Amino acid sequence: MKLLPFRYFAAVGALVLAGCGKFSNDLNVPLPAYDSQLVVECYLEPGVVPSLAVTESQTYLSAVAPTVPTDVTVNLSMPDGTLVPLYYKPGQDPLTQKFYTHIGRAPLVAKPGDTFGLDALDTKGRHVTGTATMPATVPIDSTAYKFNDAPNATRKAYFLTYFKDPATADDDYRLQLHKGLRIYSSPEVDLTIQDRLLNGQPVTLGTSYRFLPGDTVTATLYHLDPAFYRFRQSVTDARNANGNPFGQPSAIYSTVQGGIGVFTVLNYTRKTVFLSK
Amino acid sequence: MQLIILDLRRLLALLLLVGLLLVTARPAAWAQARYTLSGTVRAAGGEVLPGASVAVPALNTGTATDSVGHFSLTLPAGRYQVVVAFVGFESLTSDVNLTRNQRFVYPLTASENALDEVVVQGTQTLEQKLKTPQMGVEHISIREAKLLPALFGEVDILKTLQLKPGVQPGGEGSSGLFVRGGSADQNLFLLDNAVVYNPSHLFGLFSVFNSDAVQSVDLYKAGFPAQFGGRLSSVVDVKLREGDRQHFHVEGGLGLISSRLTLEGPLNKGKGSFILSGRRTYFDVFTRAYNRANVNKLDFTPIPDYYFYDLNFKANYTLGAHDNLYLSAYLGRDKFGYSSNASGFDFNFNWGNTLATLRWSHVFNPQLLVNTTATVTDYQYNLTNKLDQFTFNLGSSIRDYALRTDFEYTPNDRHAIKFGAAATAHRFGVGRLQAGSGDGSVNFGADVGYTANEGALYVGDNFRATDKLQIDAGLRLSAWHSGTNNYAGLEPRLSTRYSLSDNVSLKASYALMYQYVHLVTNSGATLPTDIWYPSRLSVMPQRSQQVSTGMSFLLGGGKYLLTDEVYYKWGKNQIDFKDGAQLFVNPELDTEFLFGKSWSYGNELYLEKKTGKTTGWVGYTLAWAWLNIGPQRGTTGVNNGQDYHPNYDRRHNLTVVVLHQLNTRISLTASYIFTSGNLTTLPAGRFGFQDISGANINTNTGNTTGGTDPRPIPVYPDRNSYRLIPYSRLDLGLVYKLRPTQRGGERDFTFSIYNATNRRNAYFDYFETVRDKTTDRITGFRAQQVSLFPFIPSVTYNFKF
């Protein structure tokens, strides 16, 4: 029996798709009126001069333009109640490449359990406030890696990070793995997990075979403030819903009141490992 | 026990009404001797024919066969002509001298042209619809469905149901049903009495019901008979064919994306029959060939493997003059796979239903019969993800073991009483997770499961009070037990018909329904990964009530039936979920639920014609659906507690279906649908998000600015506040029947054009980020509309011998 040549199938396929044009078309969408809100991003870190970015949200389809309000007064309240002003001095951190609008003058002193406050007020009366408590330190217990049996040219290793979740409930983590010491570049791996199924147990996070002999891997394990975890999750859900016909849009769950954004204290441990051949 | 309390006065009134119906006074005519004419209506081959009409014109009375093809009429002694009719079959007239209780089997012969039953049916079905008290019911003949144009030529009975008023489709091409403002999980799908938890293949594009194996479909939208329960919005009752009791047949079809094959024939010299039907798609045959041809190309990304199949089996056997046994089974699976040797990635995703039904039918006497049915239902999905040495398995399942017994008692020609009991043991595998590595360095598992038991007692009486007034009243008592939680509820049902004249009927109905199982999903559509969850802890049973009323007019000498129905439905304990809810493998999943109320209302206008060379229908629905999920559980509710429309709320829905018999060989069909667009939520605002250090640095080589673009994060306004453009689609079909083979075999080509006008209907809209190709910097945003199916021609070759 002679099989039909593939071109006949191709012809049928072409017929099926005869009417296919673009599946995506530009659309004119009249969006409802939207009132801009203050947006703050502030990640406090012990030993680092506190800085903060204050911007404004805008109508989605508006032109791309910087929306940095210049009239916002920002104060941090320390655990002892003292106020520390952050000064309006827009810039870009040369190390992290991150933008900020306000910055302090002295490195932050903080320990787990300390609670800080944020107060941002503009001349229109928009007032953003928030509090954040530094989470407990959860150390990386150890790391490990293992190369596969592939020939030298294609030999790769997976990487494991071990830590123990404390007995407290509602702990959230973020693990970043960077190649080399470029810890401010895009990470190779960026995982976020909750302890709801692993409370109080040892946790192992692994990668696929992706690291080469001679690579240096820096693992950074953040123990997240639950409010920050929720904010980040809502941001992810909101992004994923745009363009996903099955996605359900999520509201943004800010950690601050009176605006949008996040105010949190970071606590992380870091380990750098050289992957010997 | 938590009793779901009805208004006591209403309950007493209802019980009184049911009681009155059961003991109502006998008419004077009963002084004359009366006998019962009963039996079964079958196709000449042997299959029973549910819904066939059995009329005695001399007495201006008649009835329709029930779901197992049985009928019963109690008449004064005498000599009568009995007319038996059914869509697609020649009418049969039989002389009966009724001097004692008599039982017959009426065999109907298929019309000469097996595909064109639309031209040979009598007006009986429209008269039946006019005179039945049942409202909001649609009967779909599978032969009718086979004539209509279909996406990729795949006949789909659920998509045919979507062409009926009051039934909204999900998205483009989806076989999901949204009935009178209810959500997709509020439909009870029954295949030979077994519950089908996921009625679709390929993420909702095709239904699991193989048209070659299906005999009939009944959709109930209101006035639900008391034997049905467990879902709020509709009952889709699908019956499988039984097979030819006299001859062996092979039937099948070759289509663009799938092929079908059916075998049927007699068992033990006509004492029984069987049918075995299978269907399989072959996307994977082409994609594998394509992948093999390109495997050596650099940067080639293989196309994932996907196919689905289903198998239906049914056998029946006559044990004796009063006993029949029926066994039916279904097995369907979708299989999706993707693997890449280069990256060590292997992904497999399988899901599907497994069903089995064993039914014993026993006739005690012409007035009383019983069907006792045992069913097993299983739905599960398994997702396996292997990345190098790591494996990750995720799954969920639900399994039911059910037993029910249904009595039908016809004491006289004025009462048709149904009563029975049902019990179901549910096994919910809400979530199963297993993660591990080949070397044992990672090993983790979790399993969340529950059991529940559900029971029901029901009684209903279809009572012909006078020639003008007919009442179908029923009461169902349902109960549920899971863990330490017990619920019970009374579900009154009432349907009435009052004939204003021979051609005009006034109808009204009321139904209260409880739903004890809930679909856990955070998407707008039903997906294979959706989880079924029992009523337990804070998750109370959902409840709905519906009132509807309408008028039916038989026009044009019985050629046309015009029906207008209005309805109002309201529900409580309607469910939604918190934003960012953890739905998978969550032992405290009940805390993620949000509860609220729903209400919907609308008007359905329906004109149908079932005789002549040109038949079809026109349906128009004007409808509203609303939800309210208020602040609770530390949230502001959905939509900040404000009323909102579900995404399937569509104001207007117009369908036109035309079937035309051009000649004995050619049938032409067309269907047109116009609906308001789906509702969706588009972001109104955006803000930039940088994230922590080292998480969002633009390191693309073309980025010469050295800067980073904060990620644009959408800010959504009210839920479902934006309506997509109206949906409009014209489908065309042609059935060309080839000359019969020498052995009498039948063959035809069925041509379909889906979306003949090539309209770009909106599947969804989204906002796209525009970037500079050199620097990768964001330069703007624009709105995009995505369409799914353009003009799609298809051809299917069908045969039967």
Q: What do you see in this structure?
A:
The complex is a heterodimer of chains A (277) and B (801). Chain A has two helices and 17 strands. Chain A has 277 residues and is mainly β. Chain A folds into two domains: 96 residues, Sandwich (Immunoglobulin-like); 124 residues, Immunoglobulin-like (Sandwich), CATH 2.60.40. In chain A, the strands form three sheets. Chain A has an eight-stranded mixed β-sheet. In chain A, strands 13-12-15-17 form a four-stranded antiparallel β-sheet. In chain A, β2 and β3 form a beta hairpin. The N terminus of chain A is likely disordered. With 801 residues, chain B is mainly β. Chain B has a domain of 104 residues: Beta Complex (Ferric Hydroxamate Uptake Protein, Chain A, domain 1). Chain B contains five helices and 47 strands. In chain B, the strands form ten sheets. Chain B has a 22-stranded antiparallel barrel. Chain B is globular and about 95 Å long. Chain B starts with a strand and ends with a strand. At the A-B interface, α1, β1, β2, β3 and β4 of A face β40, β41, β45, β46 and β47 of B. β4 of chain A pairs antiparallel with β40 of chain B. Chain A: This is DUF4249 domain-containing protein.
